[in-house]
Amino acid sequence: MGLQKCGGCLSCLLIPLAFWSIVINILLYFPDGKPLHASSDNLANYVWYFEGICFSGILMLILAALLIILDQDTFQKCYQSESCTKTYRRFISVVLAVLGIAFSGYSLIISALGLVQGPYCRTQAGWDYAFKDMAGRYLMDRSSWSACSEPTYVVEWNIILFSILIVLSGLQMFICFLKVIAELKRILCGTYPVFVQPALI
């Protein structure tokens, strides 16, 4: 029973993380609080991958809802046995959790690439990726951030928001991994009950 409650709590934790991923990804489209740069396509290309909105956001919300439903004892029994129903539900939960790892992993990778690449901004040579050849070294060199003159504080904006997306996606991956482990343990314990039953004299 404790393991089942634990699995249900893990599924519920995915919901606020997914909502925050959506919010953070949307904020990336407004580096100075204005929609001008998004409408004129003056944003970094990795912002348009919708990693926080779709993959660690909407799709993760759907997965979390399905996992929560599967954790509930509201399903009818299979025609063979009750353990059949539980095994199928747990197997589906494993598949969904693995998909969750894939979705959050995609978001983490894209966010990390966006962080390393740096923002698309106005430089002395025009609109360009000012830090594209620095392999992420600009993150530790604050003096180089002045290379971007527009949008205002775009470097700080991108670093903070992409970093938050990385953390949120990492937490989602970890939770989904724990969910896979929990469900596999439940499947094995349910499939081989003879190993945990005391011997009758």
UniProtKB/TrEMBL annotation:
Cellular localisation: Membrane
Major localisation: membrane
Record lineage: Eukaryota, Metazoa, Chordata, Craniata, Vertebrata
Sequence similarity: Belongs to the L6 tetraspanin family.
Species of origin: Salvator merianae
Residues annotated as transmembrane: 7-28, 48-70, 91-116, 159-178
Entry superkingdom: Eukaryota
GO (cellular component) term, any one: membrane
Keywords: Membrane, Transmembrane, Transmembrane helix
Membrane topology: Multi-pass membrane protein
Keyword Membrane attributed: yes
PANTHER family on file: TRANSMEMBRANE 4 L6 FAMILY MEMBER 1-RELATED, TRANSMEMBRANE 4 L6 FAMILY MEMBER 18
Name of the featured protein: Transmembrane 4 L six family member 18
Entry-linked InterPro entries: L6_membrane
